[in-house]
Structure formats: structure tokens, C-alpha cells
Specification:
single chain; about 525 residues; mainly alpha; 3 domains; 18 helices; about 70% helix
Length: about 525
């Protein structure tokens, strides 16, 4: 530690011996630096404070009806975009700063200068939207105009952003609605064409292909079972009819001629004749009811004549059993039942044949119908998706229109200028005193550095320990120089010059500091002399 201290002391002694470099550097740097600093243009600052009120009364009323935006986020975004190039170019045009730029390079420098010197920041509390816009310029009026222009651009951009967003949203929604409307019409046309093309094989109220096939098979199964039951009943009725005893001896044969033959149509003919008599009392022969009754009477009479002919033929052939059987009421009832069962079996058989044909047709299309149903499902799904999106876009458009009307009625953000921009009368810069002191310290430091450098290049021994260290020979004593050599006077003279030089520089520094503080008061005596 002692060696370090001794080495530092040796360095300081070397600097002191070479102190003339301090004088040279301070006199070469300080006067020029002080004059340059004193001639720097004054910089004036203008600022404005603005309050953004985001508490709109329509917000709670329109909650859930319109698109909700966050004014806080919107303001932060506008602060970040205020210093964008389009906004800065607009500010230069509003303040005529662009006229001062004669070249593209000068204009670019102007834009960069505005970007770095215009300052906007939030100065209120966390929940207070108070913002301050600050700008510095050598012309106080220009500083005021720039702040005022920046304030105008900030307010207009923030208020116009909602309208711009609403218009953009309306245009986008209109384009999308038109697109989805065309797609919906196209889907409807394709679906209609498809249904018309496959109208006979598409799923109906009975469901899809497999469900329809199962239903038809089930109906066929039921019909075949009914047919089997009816055939069994018919077989049983025929067996009863064939096993019935004849009653020739008990039969009453009242047939004398064709008019005395009793047939199965006599009662019905009598009823229709009575009905015809009643109708003819009220209507003419051309009445539809009269015509219908006459037609039915004619048909029954034909049937009766046919039955009489069969009877007469049976009589001529000697078929007495059949004659007697046809006259037996029990046998007649069985015959009627057999006839009914035969008709029922025939109709059921027709229905079964139809169901078999349907099953055959469906099974022949088992590889086609599922593809048709899948394509129909795909068309319906695409149509439903397009329709739902179309209806959703219509709802969004209504919401956007309501939001736009709300924005046009009242602004969600209200701006209040707390402190408007003013032209400053006192400059805020440059910091001349700080620069003067800094330049003086810099010049003195350069002198100390040069003194240390030359003391190492051309060293001078200043202590016995330094001699012992350099030569390696121990020093046992020190002999002081006599006054006759003049070394003491020479050192005193150098010290006096150093003190006088620094004193003069200090006086000059004091003068420049006073000039920086009150230039008019310092220059007033000189103006009187001149």
C-alpha cells in the first residue's frame, strides 16, 4: 500500500513539473469553447396539458347492443402513432416548417428532429388521463405552433379513428354480406336442382334409405302374414261350403218363369226403385242423383239377368243340387263369406306384390341411394352453414350501424385542454453554465493528461526512493541545491505563471457564467461605450 501511495505521489510530482501543458491546453481549449457556448441559440419550450374524459353516459345504456371498444387502449395507441411520419408531415405543413427545408435531405432532417423533440407523455395519476405535449425550438412562436398542431392532430386522429373504423367495418360487412348472399343463392340453386333431379329417390317423411327399406320390409312381412291368414280362412270357408248337406226335399222351388226367380239382387233393386221413386218426385230425369240411381239399377238388373241365365242353364243340365244349394240361406251366407274372402285375398295379394316390388327396387339401388343421401346431406350442411353466417353478418351489420349512430351522436372520448400552448419568454436551454464548467473541466483534464504523458516520456527524478529504484543503488543522503543555482527562483516563477494563468481563466469563466445568467446586464456597459 505504501508503494502505491509513493507511486501516486511520484505521478503527481511529475504532473506538477510538466504543468505548463495544463496552461497550454486550458488556453487553447477554454476561450474557444466558452465563446462557442455563449453564442449558442436560446431554446424555448412550449407545452400543453390535455385531459381525455372516457366516461361516456351512453356506455352503460348501449352495453350489449353495440360493439364495445376500450377508450384507454385507443388513446395509448394514438399516443404511439402520433409521431408517425404521416402525422409529422402534417405538422410540418400546418406550421410551415416544410418551407424552411430547401432540399430533401433537409426535410428528412426536419422530420427526424420533430420525431425526437416532440414529447407526449401521461402526467396524471394512474386513473387520470392527463397528457402533456412538449416541444423545444429556438423560436418561441414556432414552439407554440408545433405544440398546437400536435395537439390538434392528436385530438382529430383520436376522434376520427372511431368513425374511420366504423366506416371500414361497414364496408367490410357490406362486402361480406354481398358475398354470402351470392353464395347462399348459389347453394339454394344447387340444392333445388339436386332435389328436382332425384325427386323420386330422396328421403321423405319416412326417413332415409335404410329406414325406408326397413319400413317397406316390415309392411311386406305384415301383409304376407295377413295374406296367409286370409288364405287359411278362405280354405276353411270353402271346406265348410263343400261339406254342407243338400236339402232338395226341403227346398222351395217357386220358379215358374223368369219373373218368379228369386235372386240375391232383388232386395237391392227394390230399395233402389223406392229411392228412384222418391227422387223423381222432387227432381227431373236429368238430375245427377236420378241418373246415378238409374245407372245402378241398370247394373243390378244386368247382374240379376246373368244370375237367372245361370240358373236356367243349371236347370236344363239337371244340376238340382246346385239349385237347391243356391236357395239355402245358410249356404248363401257361406258363399257370400267365400266371395268376400276371395276378394280380400286378391287385394292383399296385390298389396304384397307391390311391397315386394318396392323392396326389389330399393335393394337394386342400395349402392346409389346412400351416395345421393350423402350428397344431399353435404348440400344441406353447406347451405345451413352459409345461411347461419349470412344471418350472423346481418346481425353484426345492424350492431355496427347502431354503434356508428351512437358515435355520431356523441363521442366516447371528450377532450378538455387544461393548459393551452403558450410562447415562452424565458429560454430553457442550452444549459450554458453546465457546458462552461464542463468544457473547463475537460480542458484541465486534457492538460493533466498531457503533463502525465510527457512526464513519462521525459521523466524527471523527484525523490530519493525513485533514484534508488531506477539505479538499484541505495541512497544514504540528500544534498539540497543552493540558491546560487537559481532553481528556487525558476520554480517560483513557474508557479506564479501557473497561478496567474488559472486566475485569469477563472475570471473569464466567471464573466461567461454571468453572461449566461444575465446577458443584457453584462452587455449594457459595453453598449454605452460603443
Amino acid at each position: 500500500m505504501q508503494e502505491i501511495i509513493e507511486q501516486i505521489v511520484d505521478y503527481l510530482k511529475g504532473i506538477w513539473l510538466k504543468r505548463r501543458f495544463i496552461i497550454i491546453s486550458t488556453w487553447l481549449i477554454c476561450p474557444f469553447a466558452w465563446v462557442f457556448i455563449s453564442q449558442l441559440d436560446n431554446v424555448y419550450e412550449s407545452d400543453a396539458r390535455i385531459y381525455a374524459d372516457t366516461q361516456s353516459i351512453l356506455g352503460p345504456l348501449l352495453k350489449g347492443l353495440t360493439v364495445e371498444t376500450n377508450p384507454e387502449v385507443q388513446i395509448r395507441l394514438m399516443i404511439k402513432t402520433l409521431l408517425s411520419r404521416p402525422n409529422l408531415e402534417r405538422i410540418t405543413r400546418m406550421t410551415d416548417l416544410d418551407v424552411q427545408a430547401n432540399t430533401p435531405a433537409a426535410y428528412e432532417e426536419l422530420i427526424e428532429n420533430l420525431k425526437t423533440t416532440i414529447d407526449i407523455k401521461k402526467t396524471g395519476g394512474r386513473n387520470e388521463n392527463i397528457f402533456t405535449i412538449t416541444y423545444q425550438h429556438k423560436d418561441p412562436e414556432m414552439a407554440k405552433n408545433v405544440v398546437n398542431s400536435a395537439l390538434t392532430v392528436f385530438i382529430e386522429n383520436t376522434l376520427g379513428e372511431n368513425r374511420s373504423d366504423s366506416n371500414t367495418a361497414q364496408k367490410f360487412l357490406g362486402t361480406q354480406i354481398k358475398d354470402y348472399e351470392n353464395r347462399l343463392l348459389s347453394d339454394e340453386a344447387r340444392l333445388t336442382d339436386f332435389k328436382q333431379k332425384y325427386s323420386g329417390v330422396l328421403p321423405d317423411q319416412y326417413g332415409g334409405f335404410y329406414q325406408k327399406l326397413n319400413i317397406v320390409k316390415e309392411q311386406l312381412k305384415i301383409t304376407e302374414l295377413n295374406l296367409l291368414e286370409q288364405q287359411t280362412q278362405l280354405k276353411s270357408a270353402k271346406a265348410q261350403l263343400s261339406s254342407s248337406p243338400s236339402s232338395n226335399e226341403n227346398a222351395q222351388n217357386n220358379i215358374m218363369n223368369s219373373n218368379s226367380i228369386q235372386t240375391t239382387y232383388d232386395d237391392r233393386i227394390s230399395e233402389l226403385e223406392a229411392t228412384l221413386d222418391s227422387l223423381q218426385l222432387r227432381y227431373t230425369e236429368m238430375h245427377p242423383d236420378v241418373k246415378e240411381v238409374n245407372r245402378r239399377l241398370e247394373h243390378l238388373n244386368n247382374q240379376r239377368s246373368k244370375e237367372i241365365d245361370e240358373y236356367l242353364n243349371a236347370t236344363n243340365s239337371g244340376d238340382s243340387n246346385k239349385l237347391s244349394t243356391s236357395q239355402n240361406p245358410v249356404i248363401q251366407q257361406l258363399q257370400i263369406q267365400v266371395n268376400q274372402l276371395e276378394n280380400l285375398v286378391a287385394s292383399t295379394n296385390v298389396r304384397a306384390i307391390d311391397y315386394r316390388q318396392q323392396v326389389k327396387e330399393l335393394e337394386s339401388k342400395i349402392h346409389i341411394l346412400p351416395e345421393i343421401e350423402a350428397e344431399l346431406t353435404s348440400l344441406n350442411r353447406g347451405y345451413e352453414i352459409t345461411k347461419s353466417k349470412y344471418e350472423e353478418l346481418l346481425n353484426r351489420q345492424e350492431t355496427a350501424q347502431l354503434a356508428q349512430q351512437a358515435d355520431e351522436s356523441t363521442n366516447p372520448i371528450q377532450f378538455r385542454v387544461i393548459d393551452p400552448p403558450r410562447a415562452s419568454t424565458e429560454p430553457v436551454g442550452p444549459k450554458r453554465i453546465l457546458f462552461l464548467i464542463g468544457s473547463t473541466i475537460f480542458a484541465f483534464g486534457v492538460g493533466v493528461g498531457l503533463s502525465l504523458l510527457f512526464s513519462q516520456i521525459n521523466p524527471v527524478v523527484t525523490s530519493s526512493s525513485q533514484v534508488s529504484k531506477l539505479t538499484g543503488i541505495p541512497v544514504f543522503g540528500i544534498v539540497s541545491a543552493t540558491d546560487n543555482l537559481g532553481l528556487q527562483r525558476w520554480h517560483k516563477r513557474k508557479t506564479l505563471i501557473f497561478i496567474i494563468s488559472n486566475s485569469v481563466l477563472l475570471i473569464l469563466l466567471t464573466f461567461f457564467i454571468l453572461y449566461a445568467i444575465a446577458p443584457n446586464a453584462i452587455l449594457a456597459p459595453f453598449r454605452g461605450i460603443l
